[in-house]
Structures are given as structure tokens and as C-alpha cells.
Write a structure and sequence with these properties.
The complex is a heterotrimer. Chain A contains 10 helices and 10 strands. In chain B, helix 1 crosses helix 9. The longest helix of chain B has 30 residues. The model of chain B has no long low-confidence stretch (mean pLDDT about 90). Chain C contains 16 helices and no strands. By secondary structure, chain C is mainly α. Chain C has 2 domains: about 250 residues, no CATH class; about 90 residues, no CATH class. Classes of the chains: A alpha/beta, B mainly alpha, C mainly alpha. At the B-C interface, helix 4, helix 9 and helix 11 of B face helix 5, helix 6, helix 12 and helix 14 of C.
Chain lengths: ~240, ~290, ~350
């Protein structure tokens, strides 16, 4: 569904990504693991159209999207849950969700999706009138998921959803991700520093090192790979 | 009672003038120095139209037409400023600020040269007074107050109840987050400049019906608007309203007790004190 | 530090500037004799405004663009005007320094709140503070004469055979003070403190983390620039013989800001070049005086949008082009360095 070929992204003159090729398909979780500064966030920002690649191409459902505007990309069905969540702190939970549906005009569909999100995350329903900044970290992460789902995406890009959360909640977030993938009919690209966590739910994985791909393979193989275990799993 | 009425009248003026400036700041993260001139143009819209339309339609209708025409024309001017200055100087808020400062002089000069430097006034559209609890309330003032309330209600509805308004608020709070929801920054910027500029023009038309209309009326009002938005917390609309009420109260009380001429200085000192102890203003959020 | 040490520790660039100043002085002294009386007045006003922009540039080195500069200069002007029109007038020199000191004191008082703000917030808060000060000139009628201001301000007694009541004589006074201020400020700019101020402006957090007193290094240029504005204000009161609040209004303030933008502020001479440009515009279009602020505004917009860096960058680029032609050797040695 999502095909990235030979992608190169530069900040000024320095390459942040070199010759990165990644593919992700529907109804599965594809994970990209790597340490801090490996270029994971750069990759997601480029897919979402916040950064322009220097060369290479990105295709979604067969169409080139590497020069499309962020707005067009959302419209085509790619929605991102960014690092640090980037919620709108001083508007209500409900309004945050509705901003997620900004590009849609099908009132019925929006209400149906809102109900589904409230079903997945009942806490958001209880707190729908509260300001987003008053939610706990885990709740904010759920709101960020909910907001991304409100655009009715075919593919979700998740940037470090576990960061800054307590281990128990981390685990819960991962469960949520795999449930969503099955129930919501979306493909997921999950970017994580916590490789063990990410590989435990993903079906395919890539290892990004200093802007280039170091390894790729089915998640269960990567977990067993000695170099991955040594470098990312601390084993 | 008279004092209370005066406080309300003055505060409503401060609110109507400063709110557009605060809105533009909140979304664009820069100050439109030409806001005062947009307000001034709103005043001239009333003066010009009341000349042109004087014997064709009732004065009350002229007032409303002037408000709409002024808001429309100045709103489009604001969009042009967005497309030419703001868009080209993107990510350089300080340069934008300076460029609008240049623009403000350009507009002043254009008005001085085309209409003249003298102040003009429009004959009262709604003459007469109401006596209420011993206070003299000019009807014109009450009408202006009513329209200010209507304008604020309209702004509130736009920001709180429409999808576009919600997107404007979202952008003001988190630009990256907004872009990731598919909100187009160009569209939001144009919308904000239109609304902010139109608010300035409406304020100018309203005040033009009770004050002298002149090329420098905006420049004279602008620095107090700066004080209001600094004290309220830059970018916070509710803070702006609170500060406008506060200064309406202070300035009116000072006038009542015969110290009106020092109001400007007292306001500035209050601003400096607020900056000293609450650098983000009364209701501003930390950047 | 002995005088010898001071001289040997003096940066080379300052020595060149000093030599250049000494060479230029006779030209500047001869200049008014080649001019009509109208242009002599223009020259004096230009020299006064040069002092103003030199002070303004000091403030910009700490990264803030003040809008209270002209109102602050007004304190110097009013001090001189009030004290020299008393029944027993003060001496000019006492009021000059007292006026500058009061300007500096005002800056010091408002520094605490306004220096907590940055960028345009700083601009806004200084704008409001300056406007309040100007309101004070209008409202304290008993002292300041209200909107009419103060007139019949005498000029100082001449000495060395120079009569300050003539335009040329007064020009020499302003020139002497301008040259002294220019040399002192240029030396200050190259000094350790001057460089630290710019470092703080460039990265305040980093500077703070390595133990620099950032507060002091932001307050000092603000106060120093205001003191210099006070000198210019006091001199302008003497030159014009009358002052009123409009003299310290936003038109002059805009001219200074425009000079700093059009000329650029990264070099010492940038704002002066900008001032020269604006003054030239003003005189060329003298017949259309009301349009002049429009031309200034358009110039500011043009520089910001298409020609960032301003006139100073144009001059620096020109110098860089001329350098190999003028100093052939310099080119060779720099080529070697790169190799």
C-alpha cells in the first residue's frame, strides 16, 4: 500500500536519510526501529509532506505523494500520530477529535467514526468536554490516536507512541495498536525506539541506523537476530 | 451609574479595537502594525458612504452598509497583505512586523493626500439621549455597544462553532499538529487576516460614528491596544477582553476623578508592572 | 591598566578607524563652507540624527529593537530646555550631561520590565512606554509647556572663537560630540564587553549556561544607547531653540528604525548609511514632504522583502570585489590559506 523507494532527505546540506526503501501494507503493523537521531521521525515527516525529499519516491496506493501537500496526503488516507502527540492543548477533547475530521464533510460518517472512537477509548467520551492539556499522558496518547482516526485513514503513521509513558501503559498502548489494526482496517507504520515492544506486535520490521537501513525482515526473525538483540534489545 | 455606563462604553471600544489584533497575533505569531490604519479605513468607510448615500437610504441603513463594505474591503486588503508581505516573509515575524510598520505609514500618507489631514465627523445617526437612573446615555453609544456585542458574538460563533473557526484555533495552538490534520496553513492565514482586518474596520466604523475620523486615529489608538494585549497575555483572546475591561475601568475612573490626562501614563506603568511580575500577561500561556 | 597597555591592546580596526577619523575631520570641518545655509541646517540635523542612530545601533546589538528611543531622547531635550530657560539658567554643559543621565536613568528603570520581553514583544512594550513618556510631555503642562512645548532655548556660549549661534558654529559643536561618541562607541563595539553583548543576543541560553551575566549585558547597551539619545536630544533642543512633544513622536522614531533596517545593523556604519539614504530621499522629494514617510515605508518593505542585509551588505560586497584589485597581495595570501 505504501511504497518508499531510494528516499533521500536533507536538512540544508546534510543528509538525514539516504537510500531508504520501505514498504508497508494494509492490515499489518510495519515497524521501523532505531536509536535516537537515526532518522525515524524525519521519515514520517517526509511521508506526511512536512518535509520534501531530495530524491527518491513515495507512492501510496500507486500514486506518487512525495510532492503532495500535507493536506492532500491526509485526504488520500495517511494520518500521523506525531512524536510528542502535538495535540491542541487549550481546546476540548471533542474539538481535538473534530479537528481530526477537518477535511471530511460527511456528517454521518464523522458521527459514526466518533462513536467508534468513543467505543475504543471510553475515557475520551467521559472527558470530551475537558481541555486536552488536562488529560494524563496515556489519555493524551489515546486522544492523539482518536484524532488521527477521525480523518478516516487507510494508513496510520505512529511516531514513538510509547515515549514518556509508564511501562504498564506502554504495554496497553501496544495492545491498542494491534487491536486497531485488526478492527479498523488500517495499515500501521510504527516508529519506535523501544524495539522489543514494537517488534512484539509488528509483522515486519526495518532497522534504521544513522539515516540508512541496516536490516529488514519479518519481526520474529529480527527479534532473534543477534545484532538486533545486542544493539536494541539490550540482551 | 453614569460612571458605570462610561466604563462599559470605553471597555467595549477597547475590546473591539484590540480583539482583531490579538486574533492575528495568536494565529500568525506576528503583530500587524497596520491594524490601526485598517481601523481608520473603517472610519472613513462610514464618512464616505454617509456622504454618498445621504439622501438615498435611511441613516441607520447607511451605518450597516458602511460596516459591511468597510469590513469587506479592509478584509480583502488584509488578505492582500497576507499574500504579499506575510507569505513572502514567512518565518520572519520580526520582518513582517517592520514591514507592516512601513505599510501603516503608507496608508496614513495615502489618506492624508487623498482625503486630507483634517479630522472629519459624521452627524449623529441615532441622535438623542436616554435618561436612566440619573445617567445620560446617548443612543448612538448604545447602538455602538449593541453592535460591538453582536460583533463579539459573531466572532465567538465563528471560532467556537464552525469547522473553519475550530481549525483557526487549532492552528493558533499547534501549527504542526494542525498541518498533520490536513489543515492548509495558507487558507488559515488568509482567513485570519480577513477576519482580523474586518474586525478592525468594523471597530473603526462603529467608533467613527461617535468620534472624530482622521488619518491618525488608528495610530493614536494602537499603542493602547498594545498595552491591552500585552497585559491580557499576547495571543489570548479572553485575556484581551479581560484587559480591555480592566483598562476601560481604570481609564474611566481616572477621568471621573479628574486625572484623565494621566490615564495614558498609568496604563503604561500598569503594563510595565505586569511585565515585571507576569511576563506572559494575565491570561497568556507560556510560549 | 596603563595607557601604554591600553594602546597596545587596542584592536587594529580601531586604530584604522582613528586614523580615518583624523583624516576625515578636516573634510567634515570644511564641509559647511561649501554649502548654502539651508544645507548647513540639513547637515546639522543629519549630524544630530547620526548621534541618535549610533545610540540606536548600540541597543540593537543586544537583539532588541526599541521604539522608545526618541521619547527617551526627549528627556535630554526637556532637561536642557527647562533648565536653560530658568530665570537663572543652568550652564549648557551641566544640562547636556544631566539630560543624558536622565535619559539613561529612565532606560534603567524601564529595563527591568521591558527587557524581560523579546523580539516584537520588546518592541511593543517599549512603544507603549515611550508613548506614555510622550504623553507626560503633553500633560505635565506646568513643567513642559504641554503641547506648545518650550521655546527661547538659548545656545551655549561659544569658545575658541566659534560662535554657536551660527549654524556652522553649532555644527562644529555637534560634529565634535558626534566624533567623540563615534570613537568611543566603536571602541566599545570591538571590546570584550561589546562582543559579549552580541554573543548574548545570538544565544542567550548558551551564554547564561556558561556563566555570562546576560541581564547585565542586555541592560548595559539599552542604557548606554539611551544616554547617547539623551545627548542628541539635548543638542537638538539647543539647535532648534524650541521643542514640543511632536518633535519626539513616531515619525522621527520611524526614521531611525527605517535607517537601521535600510542600512543594516551588523556593522557600525550601516544605520548611518541608512540615515544618509533616508535624508537624501527627504531632500530630493522636499516638494512632496507628506509623501516622504511613504517612501521610507516602501524602502523598508523593499529591503525586507528583496534585499535583506540592506545597504551595508551592498557596501561590504563592493569592498570584497574591490579588495583583490586594491590589495593584490591580500588576495594571494588568502588564497594560500584556503589551499
Amino acid at each position: 500500500m505504501l511504497e518508499i523507494k531510494q528516499l533521500e532527505v536533507k536538512y540544508d546540506l546534510i543528509s538525514a536519510l539516504r537510500e531508504v526503501s520501505v514498504s508497508a501494507s494494509e492490515n499489518t503493523i510495519t515497524t521501523i526501529v532505531g536509536s535516537n537521531g537515526a532518522g525515524k521521525t524525519t521519515l514520517l515527516k517526509t511521508i506526511s509532506g512536512l518535509l520534501r525529499p531530495a530524491s527518491g519516491e513515495i507512492r501510496f496506493l500507486g500514486n506518487r505523494i512525495d510532492n503532495a501537500s500535507p493536506s492532500k496526503i491526509v485526504k488520500m488516507g495517511i494520518s500521523q500520530v506525531p512524536e510528542g502527540r502535538e495535540l491542541f492543548p487549550r481546546i476540548s477533547v471533542y474539538d481535538n477529535l473534530m479537528v481530526g475530521a477537518y477535511l471530511r464533510s460527511d456528517k454521518k460518517g464523522i458521527n459514526r467514526d466518533l462513536d467508534r472512537i468513543y467505543h475504543h477509548f471510553p475515557i475520551l467520551k467521559d472527558r470530551r468536554r475537558q481541555l486536552a492539556r488536562n488529560l494524563s499522558g496515556g489519555e493524551q496518547q489515546m486522544l492523539a490516536f482518536g484524532r488521527a482516526l477521525m480523518s478516516g485513514p487507510k494508513m496510520l503513521l505512529l511516531d514513538e507512541p510509547s515515549i514518556g509513558l509508564a511501562p504498564v501503559i506502554e504495554q496497553k498502548i501496544m495492545e491498542t495498536i494491534s487491536n486497531l489494526t485488526q478492527e479498523e482496517d488500517v495499515g500501521v507504520v510504527l516508529v519506535e525506539q523501544n524495539a522489543a515492544l514494537a517488534l512484539s506486535i509488528a509483522s515486519y520490521g526495518y532497522v534504521l541506523e544513522q539515516g540508512s537501513l541496516a536490516l529488514k525482515g519479518p519481526a520474529e526473525d529480527l527479534i532473534k537476530d543477534d545484532s538486533v538483540r545486542a544493539a536494541y534489545l539490550g540482551l | 451609574m453614569q460612571v458605570l455606563a462610561n466604563i462599559i462604553f470605553l471597555s467595549s471600544f477597547y475590546v473591539s479595537f484590540a480583539v482583531g489584533l490579538a486574533l492575528v497575533f495568536g494565529v500568525m505569531r506576528t503583530i500587524n502594525f497596520a491594524h490601526g490604519e485598517f481601523y481608520m479605513l473603517g472610519g472613513y468607510a462610514l464618512w464616505l458612504l454617509s456622504g454618498v448615500l445621504s439622501n438615498t437610504i435611511p441613516d441607520g441603513a447607511t451605518f450597516i452598509v458602511a460596516m459591511l463594505v468597510g469590513a469587506g474591503v479592509v478584509g480583502i486588503l488584509g488578505m492582500l497583505v497576507q499574500l504579499t508581505l506575510f507569505e513572502r516573509l514567512k518565518e520572519q515575524p520580526f520582518s513582517i512586523f517592520m514591514a507592516t510598520l512601513g505599510l501603516s505609514y503608507v496608508l496614513q500618507v495615502v489618506v492624508v493626500k487623498t482625503i486630507g489631514p483634517m479630522g472629519r465627523s459624521v452627524p449623529a445617526i441615532f441622535p438623542g439621549f436616554i435618561m436612566f437612573e440619573g445617567a445620560i446615555l446617548p443612543i448612538q453609544r448604545i447602538v455602538v455597544l449593541g453592535f460591538t456585542a453582536l460583533m463579539m458574538a459573531g466572532l465567538w460563533y465563528f471560532l467556537m462553532r464552525t469547522d473553519l473557526g475550530r481549525a483557526v484555533r487549532a492552528t493558533a495552538q499547534n501549527k504542526t499538529g494542525a498541518m498533520l490534520q490536513g489543515i492548509s496553513m495558507g487558507k488559515i492565514a488568509l482567513t485570519t487576516m480577513f477576519v482580523g482586518s474586518a474586525l478592525a474596520a468594523i471597530s473603526g466604523t462603529l467608533m467613527g460614528s461617535v468620534l472624530m475620523i482622521g488619518p491618525f486615529m488608528g495610530a493614536e489608538a494602537l499603542w493602547r491596544a498594545f498595552i491591552i494585549i500585552i497585559v491580557g497575555g499576547i495571543g489570548s483572546l479572553s485575556g484581551t477582553v479581560v484587559a480591555a475591561l480592566l483598562f476601560g475601568l481604570i481609564d474611566t475612573l481616572m477621568t471621573t476623578f479628574g486625572a484623565g490626562k494621566f490615564a495614558a501614563m498609568v496604563d503604561a506603568i500598569i503594563m510595565l508592572l505586569v511585565l515585571s511580575f507576569m511576563p506572559n500577561g494575565l491570561l497568556g500561556s507560556r510560549e | 591598566m596603563t595607557i601604554l597597555q591600553f594602546i597596545t591592546s587596542t584592536p587594529k580596526r580601531f586604530v584604522y578607524a582613528l586614523i580615518g577619523t583624523i583624516i576625515a575631520t578636516p573634510l567634515l570641518v570644511a564641509l559647511p563652507h561649501a554649502l548654502t545655509s539651508y544645507w548647513q541646517s540639513v547637515l546639522v540635523i543629519f549630524a544630530l540624527n547620526t548621534i541618535m542612530v549610533m545610540g540606536y545601533r548600540v541597543i540593537t546589538t543586544m537583539g532588541g529593537w526599541s521604539f522608545s528611543h526618541v521619547a527617551t531622547a526627549g528627556l535630554g531635550a526637556y532637561t536642557t530646555a527647562i533648565l536653560m530657560t530658568l530665570e537663572t539658567p543652568w550652564s549648557f554643559w551641566a544640562t547636556l550631561f544631566l539630560g543624558a543621565g536622565i535619559s539613561g536613568l529612565f532606560a534603567l528603570i524601564i529595563a527591568y520590565p521591558v527587557l524581560r520581553t523579546r523580539h516584537y514583544y520588546f518592541f511593543l512594550s517599549t512603544f507603549a512606554a515611550g508613548e506614555a513618556l510622550r504623553q507626560a510631555y503633553i500633560q505635565f503642562k506646568g513643567i513642559t509647556g504641554g503641547s506648545f512645548g518650550i521655546s527661547f532655548i538659548p545656545r551655549p556660549e561659544g569658545f575658541w572663537g566659534i560662535d554657536f549661534n551660527t549654524t556652522t558654529g553649532f555644527y562644529y559643536l555637534v560634529l565634535a560630540i558626534a566624533l567623540i561618541i563615534w570613537l568611543l562607541l566603536y571602541r566599545f563595539d570591538l571590546s570584550r564587553v561589546g562582543r559579549t553583548i552580541k554573543a548574548v543576543a545570538a544565544n542567550e541560553e548558551l551564554s547564561e549556561s556558561i556563566g555570562i551575566n546576560t541581564w547585565g549585558h542586555r541592560t548595559l547597551p539599552f542604557v548606554l544607547g539611551s544616554v547617547i539619545a539623551g545627548f542628541a536630544g539635548a543638542l537638538s533642543a539647543n539647535f532648534n531653540g524650541a521643542i514640543n512633544p511632536l518633535d519626539f513622536g513616531s515619525i522621527l522614531m520611524f526614521k531611525l528604525v527605517a535607517a537601521a533596517i535600510v542600512g543594516g545593523v551588523s556593522t557600525f556604519f550601516g544605520p548611518i548609511l541608512g540615515l544618509l539614504y533616508l535624508t537624501a530621499l527627504e531632500e530630493i522629494f522636499r516638494a512632496f514632504a507628506e509623501w516622504v514617510p511613504l517612501l521610507w515605508g516602501a524602502s523598508v518593505i523593499a529591503v525586507l522583502m528583496i534585499w535583506s542585509g540592506g545597504l551595508e551588505m551592498a557596501v561590504l560586497k563592493l569592498l570584497a570585489l574591490l579588495r583583490p584589485i586594491l590589495f593584490n597581495r591580500a588576495k594571494n595570501s588568502s588564497a594560500k590559506n584556503i589551499g
